[in-house]
């Protein structure tokens, strides 16, 4: 897999935005990706040094549309800690 197939998208929420102050960034990654693959992909795409990678599988939630119950999809989340003094520009250049 290439680096862009491993890293699907950044997760932008209030919690993940607060963790950016601690040099922790959250990404949705491929379900089959390992921690080493995530580390190499982040270093290749963003050009930073990764010190730690934590992964977790997000379980589906039950949702209901009128009378039909279903579940949301399962996906894998990676919380990446970068080296002190380095940042990842998720939003590009901010004005």
UniProtKB/TrEMBL annotation:
Instruction: Show the InterPro entries listed in the entry.
Output: Nucleotide-bd_a/b_plait_sf, Ribosomal_uL23-like, Ribosomal_uL23/eL15/eS24_sf
Tell me the keywords, alphabetical order.
Answer: Ribonucleoprotein, Ribosomal protein, RNA-binding, rRNA-binding
Presence of keyword Transcription regulation: no
UniProt GO BP: translation
Q: Care to name a GO molecular-function term for this sequence?
A: structural constituent of ribosome
Q: Name one Pfam family in it.
A: Ribosomal_L23
Q: One GO term of the cellular component aspect?
A: ribonucleoprotein complex
Q: Which SUPFAM superfamilies match?
A: Ribosomal proteins S24e, L23 and L15e
State what this protein does.
One of the early assembly proteins it binds 23S rRNA. One of the proteins that surrounds the polypeptide exit tunnel on the outside of the ribosome. Forms the main docking site for trigger factor binding to the ribosome.
Q: Which family does it belong to?
A: Belongs to the universal ribosomal protein uL23 family.
Q: How does it assemble?
A: Part of the 50S ribosomal subunit. Contacts protein L29, and trigger factor when it is bound to the ribosome.
Kindly give the PANTHER family that the UniProt entry links to this protein.
60S RIBOSOMAL PROTEIN L23A
- Protein name, please? Large ribosomal subunit protein uL23
Which lineage is the organism of this entry classified under, starting from the top rank? Answer: Bacteria, Bacillati, Actinomycetota, Coriobacteriia, Coriobacteriales
Name the gene that codes for it.
rplW
């Amino acid at each position: 897999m290439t680096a862009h197939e491993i890293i699907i998208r950044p997760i932008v929420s209030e919690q993940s935005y607060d963790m950016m102050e601690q040099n922790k960034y959250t990404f949705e990654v491929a379900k089959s990706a390992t921690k080493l693959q995530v580390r190499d992909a982040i270093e290749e795409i963003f050009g930073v040094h990764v010190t730690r990678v934590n992964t977790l599988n997000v379980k589906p939630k039950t949702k209901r549309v009128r009378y039909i119950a279903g579940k949301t999809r399962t996906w894998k989340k990676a919380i990446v800690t970068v080296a002190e003094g380095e940042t990842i520009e998720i939003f590009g250049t901010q004005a």
